[in-house]
Design brief:
The complex is a heterotrimer of chains A (about 400), B (about 300) and C (about 350). Chain A has about 400 residues and is of the alpha/beta class. Chain A contains 16 helices and 15 strands. In chain A, strands 2-3-1-4-5-6 form a six-stranded mixed β-sheet, sandwiched between helices. The termini of chain A are far apart. Chain C is mainly alpha-helical. The two termini of chain C are about 30 Å apart. The chains are: A alpha/beta (about 400), B mainly alpha (about 300), C mainly alpha (about 350).
């Protein structure tokens, strides 16, 4: 009996041993400073693939190419992975990247839930984390990290932009359809606060799981609530589905209720088409057709990728570029040193003018309130937004004191 | 102000019930297919959800690749999925009839992973849009809610198919053979009926029903590789509640639980996802064979 | 025997239940081998233990810890199917619930890791008692479906209950200090803790299988009516086996939560339940070591595939199908059977 037991144990151990030689070899390469390795970690196949995905990789490559793919005489390497919107997969990948592959900076990570998980890992490992995809303001609030940077936008900016604008137009009673995870909760909370501040009221909300196929029963709840505004605190594929189904159920035809998409990306408008998306009001950290510089860069991006950049993709470029500049200036890829350098230098590129980085990692830059054009107003492909207002960075983003980041106390 | 029923505006109540009925239509179609297959093969077809998804994808591919529209897809997609079922049954499932039935469940589980994984690999997990056919666009204002025509059509189509299948099995000669073969295959074989072929065709018919449900679902939900994976577990619970092997039980329970889910959404939305499972547990305590099942 | 009154009998198509086919052959063979090769076996075991102790110096410890957690999970699952003949398709419920409870009490209540794992394990035990009481009313395929449906209920609860944090899961769970002595943030301390947990769990399973209780369980698997006629209250035995299996599954789940510092929905999905079935099937149902081999292989394979463009679920599905069609004894079952044949010559 015992012999059989023991034979089995040996068998097991040997099998596992034999199968795992690969990772072991890779681990020895750790801490080699011979390369600056950047890992773009995002949703490459799911509902957020269009707003970041491969586009964020292309944008990051464009940033590296500006340095000739070399920094301090060493090559810049960019690797990618799909976190499938699962926090466990995301944090495991991040851990493995840092431990085994010697990744120096992680980029993008849409989906706030995954980003929060990755932030824990990068914080513990003192690795740079450049966030463009995720929205929750908690990333620079209670979950802030000395090496975490939140770049393109956040829930606070969306609430200040879209929330305030809609209340001003008379949309003073709200019902939220909220994506049931970190991002949705925070967006609802931030927007509710802005709505109340502006004198409106929130009559109710319903939480819909991520990647919901059928919003009809949630929409029905929103309809019977009698609220003037149905706030969609969701993103990507979920926003697209809910807007489409709202029109299928004739929700907005009565004219008594209006949809407000709180987070809408250029890629969503493109998927919905102008006839459905027209007149949506949205807040964005970037629009390609804003000035000559943005047009020039976006044209280059379009030539390579076939689509105009979203704010997430443009933000990835800006963040990676700034990171590389800091590495160059600091002469090292050591996380905390580079992070300090990044915070010292202003951000000046086609994405942001005189952007500053707060100690909690928030990159403060101007954001834009925009309206989706009517089909008749659009002059051609990708001519989607009319910029209504430039919201100064200081107004859009929470100050260090408001953020609740504990690093602030230091 | 309008009158209320149990403190709930009738608009919300009837609206959710109607949506429940639409969901119930899918439960009924899928559990019908599962019940037909189980009755004949004693296999719980775990791949049912994946084949439902395949039905939706086939119609989407027909449209985008070949320009074949919804109405033809309604015919073609179930045929294609059914044919796929024939291949599965002939090459794989038929090898397991001599073994414990659990192996059938495990095999179809593996098949579900393969089919789902392959579509996911090819098309990603975000949904592909499938337009509502021209004829069924728009909707009716029912007073308490706005019912899109297409969803109304789904309810009608599913009722017709379920009723037709039930009649065919209970009232026709073919159905009689089928029922007899379920009870005693050896005897039926002795009467000169080709039982293995009957088994194959039954499986094909069952999965074709899943394919049909997939086509019906395509314009409502987006066509996504994951659309079947969570639905199928609910349908399993439906089949357990109805009593396995009971055709009528599967259909009635399908609609009934859809309605009940709708009702839960009105009174206690948080519980709407688990109400089916709670009912399953209760039914098992009181009547282990299921509401319509016989203890065998 | 897992099925004793199924309708299949009417068609004369009854076959041996899964556990019986692979396990019985493997067992007989293994016992034959065991008597002859005791010295070889002991040596091999020493080597195995040495390898397990030395492994973290060669391999990525997080990977090893994952293997050990899943190995314990699969062994616990195997206790039910391999020795009790009950195929549960909902074991993820126990794995995941324990992970959630452990993560919650460690993070929110500030309990030390050992207490956290203990509470997680206890939660799985309670859940196992509830599910077991419902599920053992039916057998075979019905049992599988009921456990599956019940675990899906747990999935939806995990999605909606406030303390599980829905899609986000419970994150940033501190590893803490074990017994106030060992700082688990040190990868080696964490690894040896997980190894200890695994060995304890494995020892419990080994003891159970070889106890009178285990013998009765096997008797029930082989022929339940006969066990009843011998005066055994088989339902009680099955329930106890179910609870024990759920508890040990919980032990694995709670430990995993500490290792990975999070508890998420992935751990309660039906795909996870399917994965543990595969590990056990691949390794060899009803063998003590089969599940460990299976877990090691599946985790290593997933690790390897993640770096390639091959779709993981498809590969896993193909292995599933191949195992069911051609390889029902699993790896350990085959090895033991071969060894048995050689000895018999």
């Amino acid at each position: 009996m015992i012999a059989r037991l023991l034979t089995g144990a040996a068998l097991t151990a040997l099998t596992i041993g034999a199968l795992s030689v690969g990772p072991a070899a890779a681990q020895q390469g750790k801490l080699s400073g011979d390369t600056v390795k950047i890992g773009v970690l995002n949703d490459r196949s799911g509902l957020y693939a269009d707003l970041g995905g491969e586009g964020s990789v292309v944008a990051s490559r464009m940033a590296a190419e500006e340095f000739g793919n070399k920094i301090l005489g060493k090559p810049i390497e960019i690797i990618t992975a799909d976190h499938q919107n699962k926090p466990d997969i995301g944090s495991n990948l991040a851990r493995q990247w840092i431990d085994q592959d010697g990744v120096d900076a992680i980029v993008d990570v849409p989906n706030s839930g995954v980003a929060l998980a990755v932030q824990e890992v990068t914080k513990a490992k003192k690795t740079i984390f450049l966030m463009e995809g995720p929205a929750t303001s908690r990333l620079t609030g209670d979950a802030c990290s000395p090496t975490g940077f939140h770049w393109a936008y956040d829930t606070h900016a969306l609430a200040v932009g879209t929330g305030q604008a809609i209340v001003k137009e008379g949309g003073d009673s709200w019902f939220f359809i909220t994506a049931d995870y970190a991002f949705g909760h925070q967006l609802e909370a931030d927007t509710s606060a802005e709505v109340k501040k502006a004198g409106g009221k929130v009559v109710g909300s319903v939480k819909a799981p991520l990647n919901t196929a059928d919003f009809s029963s949630f929409l029905l709840q929103a309809q019977s609530s009698g609220a003037k505004i149905i706030g969609l605190a969701n993103a990507g594929g979920d926003t697209i589905t809910s807007i489409k189904q709202a029109s299928e159920f004739g929700l907005t035809q009565s004219g008594q209720q209006k949809l407000a998409g709180l987070l809408i990306f250029l890629s969503d408008v493109h998927a919905l088409g102008l006839p459905v998306a027209q007149d949506l009001v949205l807040t964005t950290g970037f629009y390609w057709d804003r000035d000559d510089e943005t047009r020039a860069w976006s044209k280059k991006f379009f030539d390579r990728f076939g689509k105009m950049p979203t704010m997430v993709q443009a933000g990835s470029y800006s963040a990676v570029r700034h990171y590389l500049k800091a590495v160059e200036a600091a002469g090292t890829d050591d996380g905390p040193t580079v992070a300090a350098k990044m915070k010292e230098m202003p951000v000046n590129d086609m994405f942001a003018k005189n952007g500053t980085i707060l100690p909690n990692g928030r990159m403060v830059h101007d954001v834009y309130l925009a309206r989706v054009k009517k089909p008749s107003e659009s002059k051609g492909a990708w001519d989607y937004y009319q910029i209504l207002r430039t919201i100064p960075g200081k107004e859009a983003f929470a100050s260090l004191e408001e953020s609740g980041c504990k690093l602030a106390a230091k | 102000m309008m009158a209320t029923i149990f403190g709930i505006p009738p608009q919300a109540l009837f609206g959710q019930l109607l949506l429940g009925l639409i969901n119930g239509s899918f439960y009924a179609l899928l559990s019908l297919g599962l019940a037909v297959i189980f009755g004949m093969l004693n296999v719980i077809n775990f791949a049912h959800g994946a084949l439902y998804m395949m039905g939706a994808f086939v119609s989407w591919l027909l449209l985008t690749q070949l320009g074949i529209g919804y109405w033809w897809a309604l015919l073609l997609a179930p045929l294609i999925v059914g044919l796929f079922g024939v291949i599965l049954e002939k090459t794989l499932l038929s090898r397991l009839y001599q073994l414990d039935h659990l192996y059938g469940l495990l095999l179809t589980f593996g098949l579900a992973l393969i089919v789902e994984g392959a579509f996911r690999h090819q098309y990603g997990v975000s949904g592909q849009p499938y337009p509502i056919p021209e004829m069924l666009r728009g909707g009716q204002n029912l007073g308490f809610m706005f019912l899109p025509n297409y969803r109304g059509w789904v309810v009608v189509a599913s009722l017709v198919v379920c009723l037709g299948t039930w009649l065919a099995i209970e009232k026709t000669k073919l159905g009689a053979y089928l029922r007899a073969a379920t009870e005693n295959p050896v005897l039926v074989q002795a009467f000169g009926i080709n039982v293995p072929r009957m088994v194959t065709l039954t499986y094909a018919f069952g999965v074709a029903l899943a394919g049909l449900a997939g086509v019906l679902a395509a314009p409502i939900y987006q066509v996504s590789p994951l659309m079947g994976s969570n639905l199928i577990i609910v349908v399993f619970a439906v089949v357990v509640i109805g009593g396995m092997g009971s055709i009528l039980g599967a259909v009635l329970t399908g609609y009934g639980l859809g309605l009940l889910e709708g009702l839960t959404k009105v009174f206690y939305p948080e519980a709407s996802n688990i109400v089916v499972f709670v009912i399953m547990a209760v039914v098992l305590m009181i009547k282990p064979a299921g509401l319509f099942g016989r203890e065998r | 025997m897992s099925l004793h009154s199924q309708s299949g009998a009417q068609r004369g198509t009854r076959g041996a239940p899964p556990a019986a086919t692979g396990a019985a052959a493997g067992r007989a063979a293994g016992e034959a081998a065991g008597r002859g090769g005791a010295t070889v076996g002991r040596l091999a075991a020493l080597v195995a233990l040495a390898v397990l102790l030395g492994a973290p110096f060669l391999l990525y410890p997080v990977f090893l810890m994952k293997v050990l957690c899943f190995a314990l999970f699969a062994c616990a699952f195997n206790l039910l199917i391999g020795f009790g003949g009950l195929l549960s398709f909902g074991h993820a419920a126990f794995f995941g619930s324990a992970a959630y409870v452990t993560a919650h009490v460690v993070k929110e209540w500030g309990l030390p890791p050992e207490l956290g794992i203990l509470l997680g394990t206890a939660a799985a035990a309670v859940l196992g008692l509830a599910f077991g009481a419902i599920a053992i009313r039916r057998q075979g395929i019905y049992f599988a479906m009921i456990t599956l449906a019940l675990s899906q209920m747990v999935f939806f609860l995990a999605l909606q209950l406030p303390f599980t944090h829905g899609e986000d899961g419970i994150q940033a769970v501190p590893r803490g200090t074990l017994f106030g002595l060992f700082n688990l943030n040190d990868p080696l301390a964490m690894y040896y803790t997980v190894l200890a947990v695994f060995l304890i769990g494995f020892a419990i399973i080994w003891r159970t299988v070889h106890s009178p209780f285990g013998q009765v369980l096997k008797a029930i698997r082989e022929n339940e009516p006969r066990a009843i006629s011998l005066g055994y209250r088989t339902d009680r035995y099955k329930l106890l086996a179910f609870v024990l299996s759920a508890t040990l599954t919980g032990l694995a789940g709670g430990t995993k939560a500490i290792v990975f510092q999070l508890a998420t929905l992935t751990d309660v999905t039906w795909q996870m339940s399917g994965e543990v079935v595969l590990m056990t099937l691949l390794g060899g149902m009803g063998t003590l070591f089969g599940p460990v081999v299976g877990a090691g292989l599946v985790v290593a394979l997933e690790n390897y595939l993640a770096a390639t463009s091959l779709p993981v679920p498809v590969v896993i599905g193909v292995i599933f199908v191949v195992c069911v069609l051609l390889f029902r004894r699993g790896i350990a079952g085959e090895v033991l059977a071969r060894m048995g044949q050689q000895k018999a010559k």
